[in-house]
Structures are given as structure tokens and as C-alpha cells.
Amino acid sequence: MYKVPRYFPTTIVGSYPKIPPAEDLIRRRKREVIGEEDFHELVKPSIKVVIDDYLQAGVDILSDGEQAREDMVAYFAERLEGYRGGEWVRIFDNVYFRKPVVVGEIKYLKPMAVMDWAYASSISNGRPVKAILTGPYTMADWSFDLYYGDRRELVIALAKVIRREVEEFVKKGANYVQIDEPALSTRPLKEEVDVVNEALHIIFDGIHAKKIVHICFGKIERILEYLLDFPIDQFDFEFKNSNLRLLPYLVEYGFNKELGYGVIDVHSTRVEDVQEIYNDIEKLVKTGLLGPDKIYVDPDCGLKRLPREIAVAKLQNMVKAAELAREKLV
Amino acid sequence: MVDVSCSVLGGYPRNRRVRHLVRDYEEGRLSSNEFYNALMGESIFLAGVQRALGCECIVDGMLEWHDILRPFVNSWRGVYLSGLLRYFDNNFFYRIPVFREAPEPMNHTLSTKFNMIKDYIGSSLYKAVIPGPATFAALSKNETGKDDVWLAVKIAEALNSELRGLSGNDIIIQIDEPALTDKELYDRIRSHLEEIYGSLLPGLDTSVRVSVYFGCVLEDAYAELLDVKGLDFVTLDGVDCKKISTLIKEYGVKNRKLGLGVIEARDIYEDDYTKVKTSVSKVLEEYEGDLSLLHLTTSTWLDLIPYEYAVRKTGVLSYYSNRIKEEVD
Ligand SMILES: [Zn+2]
Prior knowledge:
The structure holds two protein chains of two kinds.
Chain A: H1 20-30, H2 36-42, H3 44-57, H4 74-77, E1 81-92, E2 95-107, H5 114-122, E3 131-134, H6 136-141, E4 144-145, H7 151-171, E5 176-180, H8 190-204, E6 210-215, H9 224-227, E7 234-238, H10 247-252, E8 258-264, H11 274-286, E9 295-299, H12 308-328
Parallel strand pairs in A: 2-4, 3-5, 5-6, 6-7, 7-8, 8-9
Antiparallel strand pairs in A: 1-2
Helix pairs in contact in A: 3-12, 7-8, 11-12
Chain B: E1 3-6, H1 16-26, H2 32-52, H3 70-75, E2 76-86, E3 93-105, H4 113-121, E4 126-131, H5 133-138, E5 141-142, H6 148-164, E6 171-176, H7 183-186, H8 193-200, E7 208-212, H9 219-227, E8 233-237, H10 244-251, E9 257-263, H11 273-286, E10 293-298, H12 307-327
Parallel strand pairs in B: 1-10, 3-5, 4-6, 6-7, 7-8, 8-9, 9-10
Antiparallel strand pairs in B: 2-3
Helix pairs in contact in B: 1-2, 2-4, 6-8, 10-11
Zinc ion is lined by residues 13, 182, 214, 216, 301-302 of chain A.
């Protein structure tokens, strides 16, 4: 079994640039040219490419690169009862996503993402692979609801099915479970945090694994003091894109959990150099807020929008910077 | 007796054909002429829908706009585009304009489109929608070395020159100021609305309305807005703000007409007529002045929902407005 470094372990948030065959498979799956089982079998070579890239870069805690997922909401919506496929809604410029529609009671059907994780784990040379699921608040916010008519109710219903999936992961041996809630930064309000907190209790209570929540891009400082009540071990935040803007707020509110520290800007193709990343790690260490065993070094968010060669180059420098930090800052 | 009219607040989403047109144009497979001619057909269709449904004024759909600021940024000197930022509390992102100096219009964005639509749709009232100077400045990055109020005034001057390019007494102007619902954004230009609008409105001989959405207009901002001279209309978001009647009771509308967003434009569920009627009645009850004309509209632009629903909501707006006209007095 691979031994994750005790200090400044490196990891990733989740998604990775789509390997071309995976994109084609997603289209064929959608048109029902191939079935669900064949789909997950056929997507394996793409996952293998991702894992090889991670291993080559030297990342400690991996992901399956979300090669099977068209996007983080539609993938799960298509595999749950109560959803129907949506139509195109704009995200920016001329870029769209299919916003799914809740039309009935949300029910769990069968494992949705465990098989890709299991395959990734089997080829990771013993390195742990994170189980990564889209959170109930984000699922709800990025769907239209024609059934529940109440956001909290929908979030809770989704939390219950996500709990089922988490149990499947843990049964198969997942030691790291991450829930992605990027939508929470849309409405940085205490009422909204309270709903997510309630949902996280449903998802995580009694689960034995490292429990992580990823939130990114928004005015997180407005809700930071309430977030600290979440029943989790680790928060993963974006820092690089906003010039470490959140750092003084962590100090102000006495941040006391493990921190996934985003040091790679996923919205820029410029490759951060080793020294630059090291300097950012040093800035966090110098606050005296967290010991090096509580700092997980990773990119701001998923890498899916970057060209693959840029993603690899960024990860390589990130790993080298963490090694340097282990030498100099411990 | 209250006279009730209606119109959609702003832009429409792109349907499949328009999405492909935009893509082909951006990737160089369509010339500018080919693109705008093809797009005109889509605008004419949407105009026809609004006309047939009895909308008081007609929008062209703003189908080529990537976001509300973009066409202006693209046609002004002194400002360039940078990264994406969340547009209020939507899962939609706009590109941040970065101002290096006072903007200078190179050509007019709002120009001749309405004239072409008129050839097909005939005489009607048309509505040109622009981002308000306060919102424009608050959503931008200011690298001019001057303060945000200065920038907002300069933006107002540039917008004024755009608006003067619109000719004809059958065009009305709507100025969108969603930033007046957000304290952090409003603080950037607080107490200066009168000054900013003093640069926006001169020389416009048409009806001008201002529209605030994505929640409740801040009380201070509303009071300021009512002091701005030259605005005929104030439109508020009756879907995401539950205290409009309180606001109206407290501040009135100062002889302006009231527009009320009553159809949910950010969600696809079928709006409940009883709820719409109740919220309209509540506002009417609290208002003590002359409210002879009430204008009903969508809570915001219709571009955040799929195309089919946007067209459908236009119909719902028209149908509910007609019912309210008959049932409320
Ligand atoms: Zn993220």
C-alpha cells in the first residue's frame, strides 16, 4: 500500500480533461447505442490515461478524472429516479449545459459512480482514489424543480440518495469521500449554509472515511464562520484564482479543519512555476494557522477545461512544490 | 379603474438554430452579413410572438448579446474584456469589463435593428434595453485611476450617445439596474445616482423607464432613484422581492408609472394565477396615489430558461395581464 506523505500531501479536486474516446462514449451512451454496463467497461482506457498522468506527475491522492461524466449534475440526474433530461441553458458566452428537471420523487436506483472509482483504485499503484460526488445543494440549484416546490425539501431528498451512494463507496473501501458544492457560493447566506449542514449530516453521520467538502469561486468569507460547523474533516477551497484572498479570513475565523489548498488556477493556461506554488504554500504556513499535516496541496477546482498537456505540467510543478515544502517548511 | 399593460422585461434565450449561428459566426464559417441576416429572422419571429400576444412594447430578443454588458464593451474604446464572474445569484457568468480610461463609442450598438423589424411587424412600440450606468460601473473593474462615480458618469455619457442614435417616437428606453439590489455593488456609487443619470438622460425625447431585478431594490437606492428626474417608469421584481407593497407605501412612486415583474423568469414552473393576482392586489392596496396604469412584466430577462419555456412564459404573462385587467380595480 502506498504511504501518503504525512505533510503537504498532494491531491486533485476531481475532473480532468476529457480523453477523446470518453467524449465519444458519452455521446453513444446518451443515444443508447451502448448500455450502462458496456459504457463503464469501455470508458476504462480513458480512466487509465488519467491515472497514468497523475502517477507520472506524482500526485498522492487521485481521482478517476470524471471521464464518464458529461457534467457534474446531468450525470447523476440521468441515473436517479425522479429526474427527466433537460434542455439547454446558457452558462456563459455561447456555452450551455442541459439543466435537468425534477419531475417526481427522487429515488436511488443503483450505484452510479462506484465502478469507475473501483477501476481507478485497481490501477493506482496503491495510491488512494477519492470518491467524488456532486452535493445535494448543487444538484438542486442546477436543476429545475417541478415536483418539490421547496429548495430545502429537494436538497434533503437528494442528500438521502447521495448517502446511499456514499455507503456503496465505503463498502468497497473508499477512504476519502468528497462532496462538491460549488453552488453554495452562489448564495453565501446563513440560511443556505444551514440547509447544506443538515444535508451533510444525512450524508456523513456514522460514515468512516475522510469527509471532504469542496466549494469554489464566490464570496465564501461571508459564510465561513457557519461553514466551520459542518460535520466534516476537510474543506477544499480555491485560492490561486483570487490571489489567496480568502487566507486572512481563515485566520480571522479560526479555521480549524484540514484544508485542501488550491494553488493552481484552473481558469488559466499559464503554468505556475514551482517557486511560485511553494511561495503560496509558505504564505499559508506563515499564518501559523495549520500544521503541515493538515494542509493538502491541490488545484483550485476540476481541471476539465484545460488542455491535457497544461494540466499535466501544472500537476508536475505542484508536486515538486509540495516536495520542496516538505524539505523547507516542516 | 386600473389600466394594465404588459411586456417582457428583456432578452430571450438562444434556440438551437441561434446557438449554431453564433458558433458558426465565431468560428469564421459565416460572414457578419450572413450572421446578422439570419439572426434577424429569429428576432422577427420573437417580435411577432410579442405582437400577437398584445405586448405593449416589443424587444428584439438581444440574441447576439453574450451578456448585457458585452455589445457595449465590444464597441467602445478604453475598455477590454477579462475573466468570467458570476452574474448575481445565477449559474450564469459575464465577462468583466476592465476600464483603462473613459469609454468612447466607436459605433452604435442599438442602431438600425428596429427599423428592419418594423418592416415585417408594422407599427408598434419598441423597447431598447441597456445596462444602467450604475450597474455597468459596479460590475466592472476600474483601472482608470479615478473613482467609481467618475467612471459611472463616463459610462452614462457613452450610453447617452448610444441612445441618441435611436430615432423615432415609437422607441422607448429601458435602463436595467440590478446592482441596486446588492449592497456591495450599490455602495460603489451610493448617493450619486442623480449625478450619474444627469449624464445619461439629456437630449432623449422618448419615454425612459428604469428596471431593478434579482431581488429587492435597496431602500436607499429606491429613494435615490425616485429623485432622478426624467424617469417615467420604475419597474420592480415582484417575484424575488416580497416587500414591494411596503416599499410603495413608504416611498410611493412619485408620479411615475409602476412596472411589476410578476412572472418568474428564472424558473420553468407554470406561474400560479391566484398568487400573481394577490401580489398585484397587495401593491395596489398599499399605493395611495394615482396608479392609473400598471405595467406587468417578467421578473427578469427570459434568457436563463430554455427557449420553449421563454416563449411559453410570454404567453402566460399576456394571458394573466388580461385577466387581471378584467378582475382588478
Ligand atoms: Zn470547484
